[in-house]
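[Structure tokenization] protein backbone as discrete codes
[Encoding] learned vocabulary of local backbone shapes
[Protein] chain in single-letter code, fold in tokens
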Amino acid sequence: SYEHKVNFKKSKEACLSYIQDAMLQKQWERAAEFLTFYVESLEKDFSREHVNPSELIWRIGSEILCHHSQSSVKEFNSFIEQMKTLGVKRYLKVCLEHAFHLLCNGLIDEAYQNLALAESWRFGEQTTLQDKEMKLVQAYRGLLDYYRWSKQKNILLHSQDEFEDLSVEQEMHSCFRKAAVGLKEIIKIPGVWDLFVKCYVDLLEFYGDHNEARQVLNEYAYNSKFPANPNAHVYLYQFLKRHGESKKSLISVLKILHEIVPSHELMIEFNTMLQKSKKRKKRRLGLEVIFAALDYAGWKENVKAWSCLARQMKQIVVSEKHLDWIKQEWDTRKDWWPAFHFSHYLAKRNWQENESLSYEKALVAGILLGKDCKYFKYVSHRGCKAQVKKFRILKKFVNKQKLAYLRISG
């Protein structure tokens, strides 16, 4: 009847609401009870309305079983096997989740077997429709083949038995071939495949196929079909550095990384390379890079970063060349950097916690804000009082740079 349909719909929605509430409060036993009621109510539904709750039950049930205090791997396996039979369209996704759960519980061989069975699955047109899921299954199986290959490689490196070496090497090559197939296929599809790319490149490098490895990394970093991914440029940079590529190549990669993530930890390395360059344009970029990095809270107490900035600014001030570089960077920051970096509170805290940091920051603060800057005054006073020679030299240096400060401040 119509009334029955309405009541059933209301009770179903109420039950799902209770499940959600219990899960959000991490009341897994309570959530499990409501899920049981939900499943039972579906079994007793006599309405002709089409109901397809299998994905809901699968996702909620998996989450509950992963956190329930009385749950076991055996129970999870049993539940997942039932879920595999409920929906052909989701079969491969359920298999992947099953493999992840087994891996989280350290059952690597069982996970591998599960993925191998999923890879051999065929179901008419659904096989074509789920092509991407199948490639994921193959890729994760390839990842486990890589893991096996890595284990065999470590055994080979530490082995002193020639007969054992031969069998281990054969097993290694077998794992390599299997891993390469799965990993190579997945990284052709536009997406973020960091782990798969790293493993595949490791395999290629080990067997000396550097050209193929470089091609893979270039494609991953520069193919416009792939989403912007800082790690892609990091992996390419690390590869080029390992193989002794020119500074020009390394700088070109880090320049793109700087544009995507100006706060990346490699920016100190990038700044150092740029400062060593004879080209004025690159040294100018180096100043921009280190200023940009220090715009982020995570860099506020990075001694290396402040040291890089202090050293370059000191060189510019002493030479009296390119003061306009500092001025251009400072003009966009002078409204908020004083409170962000050079407050009296920070001067006090930095002095107590890290003398080297306070020294580098005081030098920068003195050049940018002059000798009356709160940060510079506090740190230089404390340093001189503690009779630390470098702070006396710092104070004299800043006091002499009145003209530079006036030009920078405008």
